[in-house]
Amino acid sequence: MSLEYRIAAFVVLSLAVMFADSRFDYLDRVRFALGFLTAPIFWVADTPARVSYWIDDVFVSHSDLIAENQSLREELLFARRELQLLAGLASENQRLRALQEASASVEGHILTAEIINISSDPGSRRVLINRGAQHGVETGQALLDAYGLMGQVVEVLPFTSWVMLITDSRHGTPVQVNRSGERAIARGSRGEVPELELEYVPDTSDIVVGDLLVSSGLGQRFPKDYPVAEVTSVVHDPGQPFAIIKARPLAQMDRTRHVMLLELPVKEGEVAPQNGTVPDWIEVTQAQEPVVDAQGDATLAIEADAAALAQQPADAADTTDAPADPAADPASATPGDIPVEDMPLPSELADIVPETPAGQD
Amino acid sequence: MEQKTNATWVVYLTFVVAFLLAIVPFPEWALNYRPQWVAMVLIYWAMALPYRVGIGFAWVTGLVVDILDGSLLGLNALALAVIAYITLSLHQRLRMFSSLQQSGVVLAMTGLYLMMTHWMKIAANQAVTSDLHFLLGALFSAFLWPWLFVLLRQMRRSFSVR
Q1: Nearest chain B Cα to A342, which residue?
Q2: Pick from A221, A349, B88, B141: CA 20 to 30 A from residue A317's CA?
Q3: What's the sign of the alpha-carbon dihedral B67, B71, B73, B75?
């Protein structure tokens, strides 16, 4: 008999803990404390990789080292030359920006990190890096490698942090086509292949295969103009309200171990109190995201609603009390780089999607 | 009920090893085939030492798994507590089963474990996979169970864990 009571008690306790963890942040401290406990496990699990790197470093012939040194020197020389050119461009850019009174692009300190584990959950694409609260990591920091944007920190533990990759289906990255300047949201695909899908891009937009997508910086979380992906397929289906565009991330998601962590831009704290527009703007994002989410269940009515929203930015702005500035354009202003799990479903949208059938997908 | 404890560190050690095996990086295509080590070790100890490894033990183990997975706190805890409950209520029958029958039970229980965590992830908006490939993990768990069972029984006997 006591067994039944105990399991009932623990089920209730689990449900309470889950509810508290998903809705409030009381349990963040518990999570953090338990992180101390799990750090050694991650450390041990990473040992084979570390040992193999160490062996690669130690058991290498003298001539190989000399050759590597040689090629590194040459690379450095090239990089220095490029840097000289860049310095000139940067100062020119700065002068032009000063002329236009535009804000400077996001810059920040960089912390190098190593990927020490990947999520064992097949449904999510996340990695664990070997930097945590002890190294000053904060939630929301962007992770880059030498080729492109990788993701952002979603959970900070004492010595490690979880990073959600941009290919996670719950992650949206605000991007911009480098050639035409067209803005879009790149969401991680739901399928097996780690790729990105551009959402709510009108059929008439100027995006072709091979276009480079860079981060637009509109979410104020990722650095502006950092390479994100390359467009691999563009399909114009007359039966679909939007073009179906897929892109391959440029970052070496599953090959690289060495990554860079970008310090959060100081701007974020400064912008908020400046004027009253920012809280409204965040509301726009909250109203938009669930639509984005519901779209996965592919009911045409919802898509039509979303189409109406996307084609009439002014209307969308009115319904959500946002200022009708260009940033209110829902297709571009949604800072999709905020994980969807953080966003509550607004009641009005819950009315629009009353019976999203769970079994449809 | 109250028996003198002996060598319980063996129990903890096997769980730590199970945690390690649960988070060792797999290539992406193999993620679905990962055996559910923690659930299997829990089933064994709940069957062999029901007075030592109970629902509370399973719950705390689940919390550690939650942290290791970075998932919602309490998700794996609930699923593992349910697994422990089922094992505890069946443990006398389970001990009599042949290893093939035990594998069948393990298949059902790890399948239930995966299904429960999947449901909770969907309810908490943490998962979006709609295919059921992840249930292959239960198949591999059942396949590995006879060997794990012999290994753990050998450890329990040689260290006379109580």
Answers
A1: B125
A2: A221
A3: negative
